[in-house]
Design a protein that fits this description.
Blueprint (H helix, E strand, L loop, with lengths): L25 H32 L10 H9 L3 H14 L2 E2 L5 E2 L4 H8 L5 H12 L3 H6 L1 H12 L4 H15 L1 H13 L2 E6 L5 E6 L2 H14 L15 H17 L16 E2 L2 H5 L12 E3 L4 E2 L1 H7 L4 E2 L2 E3 L5 E4 L3 E2 L3 H11 L15 E4 L14 E4 L1 H10 L2 E5 L2 E5 L11 E2 L5 H7 L15
Antiparallel strand pairs: 1-2, 3-4, 5-6, 6-7, 8-11, 9-10, 12-13, 14-15, 15-16
Length: 450
């Protein structure tokens, strides 16, 4: 029997560095990192040869391990996926011997050569092996050498992720029927689930076919992009938060689109029920926030957030009896009619808030003096805001004053102790002419005039 390795008896002696890392120049440090990576890859190549030999000797049968992969996983204390990858790659890049003891090239000679040179890593080799395995049978019989050489060549300059995309393109090219069946199977396997958690948040889990996934990515990516830096400060949101905000903006765009299907003759809508007096107190002090409202998902929502949403919504007055059953229904009113929104967009752009760089999403019309407090629905009492700055204005309690028909934003003391007004909206052509007045040449008079 082959004696088992005792890992406790193994010692690794690291070669001392030729010079201190601290004393390296940037160029030397980069070259050293690159050199060490190459050395580690060459050592990995040697390890793969040893793993292949251990496979031939069936070392794992002398232990309780049921396979070479499980044996290697315990020997090296690595994840099962990593152990499987090493065993799989080792079997395809090992130097083979014939029955007569002659050395034969590996199954994947170009991949083996790139590994032995330290030009590619284990992940590159895994992608190549899997790419070859997924080829149709006739391609594995007649074109495997050409495909393997192509992938191994590009692996020297591509990341494993990019190489995987290339391998898939090759498979699609050589097995179009199989690729089509794969896409059909993905379509059949599509699913999306959503539920309301105990804390009221909605949890969404989805698996989309590649076509639907591409549509989703194309729509969500620009909506979830980081906001431009303001005074050198980057967007503080995490990637997950930006994706969530982008998804919210996507829903706003869908709700605002006339092409959405109608249910019961009405466009899709989010319904909120709240007492009118509580709505009026929505931005009061701590003890005057009012009772919460109720969403159409039967979850509660604070009066403060209802007031923000109601800035640009249809309001349907309704009289309820003691059991909250409707007794009378009034006429719905849109707080920002189409002609008012068009005028606001022309004056303010998508968002009038200072420094806003036209964020994506559906703009929201905000009343300077809220309509529940008697504010009029006209240009002198409204500004256009993006969803982010609409929430900022309500949460941080910014104030707005209209000066010569244009909005000025007054920050709260927590933002600016002096509360210096900041002009909002977008510049108009008349303002541009005023700014450039000094650069415009004086008109020339008739010939001969001085």
């Amino acid at each position: 029997m082959t004696p088992l390795l005792n890992t406790q008896d193994l010692t690794v002696q690291a070669t001392p560095p030729a010079q201190s890392v601290v004393s390296c120049t940037d160029t030397e440090l980069a070259a050293r990192i690159q050199g060490l990576e190459k050395e580690m890859r060459v050592l990995l190549w040697e390890q793969l040869q040893c793993i292949a030999e251990a496979d031939h000797r069936a070392i794992h049968t002398d232990t309780t391990a049921r396979s070479l992969q499980v044996w290697l996983q315990g020997l090296l204390n690595i994840d099962p996926r990593d152990a499987k990858t090493r065993v799989t790659v080792a079997r395809n890049v090992e130097d083979r011997r014939s029955l007569y003891g002659e050395t034969m090239p590996p199954d994947m000679p170009d991949t083996a050569a790139a590994l032995s040179e330290g030009a590619i890593g284990l992940e590159h080799a895994r992608v190549i092996v899997n790419g070859i395995r997924r080829l149709p049978e006739y391609a594995r019989c007649h074109q495997v050498a050409e495909v393997e050489a192509t992938l191994a060549g590009y692996a020297r300059t591509m990341s494993p992720r990019e190489l995987e995309k290339l391998a898939e393109r090759i498979r699609y090219l050589l097995d179009q029927d199989g690729a089509y069946r794969n896409e059909e199977n993905q379509h059949e396997a599509r699913e999306l689930h959503y539920a309301t958690a105990r804390d009221g948040m909605t949890v969404i889990k989805a698996k989309l076919d590649r076509e639907t996934g591409a549509k989703f990515a194309a729509l969500i990516q620009p909506l979830a992009a980081p906001r431009p830096e303001i005074d050198g400060e980057k967007d503080p949101r995490t990637t997950g938060q930006r994706n969530a905000d982008g998804f919210a903006a996507l829903l706003d765009l869908a709700l605002d689109h006339d092409g959405m299907p109608r249910a019961g003759g009405q466009r899709p809508q989010m319904a909120i029920s709240i007492d009118f007096d509580d709505l009026k107190r929505g931005l009061g002090f701590v003890n005057e926030d009012g009772m919460p409202g109720a969403l159409n998902t039967e979850r509660a929502i604070t009066a403060q957030n209802v007031r923000r949403i109601a800035c640009d919504a249809e309001v349907l007055p309704m009289v309820l009896d003691g059991d909250s059953l409707p007794l009378d229904v009034g006429r719905a009113k849109r707080t920002a009619p189409t002609h008012i929104r068009a005028a606001l967009l022309r004056r303010d752009g998508v968002c009038a808030f200072p420094g806003c760089d036209r964020p994506p999403g559906t703009p929201e019309a905000h009343h300077v003096e809220h309509w529940v407090d008697g504010g009029a629905t006209n240009l002198d009492n409204m500004v256009m805001l993006c969803g982010h700055h609409h929430r900022t204005l309500h949460n941080q309690r910014w104030e707005i004053a209209m000066c010569d028909g244009r909005p000025e934003f007054i920050p709260p003391p927590t933002v600016d102790p002096r509360r210096t007004p900041r002009p909002g909206g977008r510049a108009l052509p008349a303002q541009h002419r005023e700014y450039l007045r000094g650069l415009i040449p004086a008109p020339r008079g008739p010939a001969g005039d001085s």
